[in-house]
Design a protein that fits this description.
The chain has 106 residues and is of the alpha/beta class. It has helices at 35-46, 51-58, 62-81; strands at residues 7-9, 17-18, 30-34, 85-89, 93-95. It has a 3-stranded mixed beta sheet with strand order 2-4-3. Strands 1-5 form a two-stranded parallel ribbon. It has one domain: Arc Repressor Mutant, subunit A (Orthogonal Bundle), CATH 1.10.10. Helix content is 38%, strand content 17%. The protein is built from 3 helices and 5 strands, in the order βββαααββ. The chain is elongated and about 40 Å long.
Length: 106
């Protein structure tokens, strides 16, 4: 299997675990979101970037970015629908790369 390319994320999330209030954390199942999945959701859903632009920021191809985003969305949906904790863990990512935007282009 080919090794994963290093992916870039802006910063670590302030919280690493989100859980429903209905049960204590030790009684909940968990889904694990990698940092690149978290960053993909942040860039597309919060920042409103197109996948092609977000892929450049993370340092992967657009098809790879699409797979990362789809995986993240499935995990988040599983956590919400099936009442699971959503945990964010480190992956093959580097933190803090500075991105510069040029007139609508990356």
């Amino acid at each position: 299997m080919r090794p994963k390319k290093t992916r870039w994320v802006k910063c670590l999330p302030q919280e690493r675990c989100f859980k429903p209030l209905c049960k204590p954390l030790n009684k909940l199942e968990s889904v694990y979101l990698s940092l690149d999945e978290f960053e993909a959701v942040r860039l597309t859903c919060v920042e409103g970037l197109k996948q092609v632009d977000a892929a450049k920021l993370i340092g992967v191809s657009r098809p790879t970015f699409s797979r990362i985003l789809t995986s993240a969305q499935r995990k988040i949906a599983d956590g919400l629908v099936n009442i699971k904790a959503i945990r964010i863990e480190k992956g093959c990512c580097k933190i803090g790369r500075v991105h510069r935007f040029k007139k609508g282009r990356i």
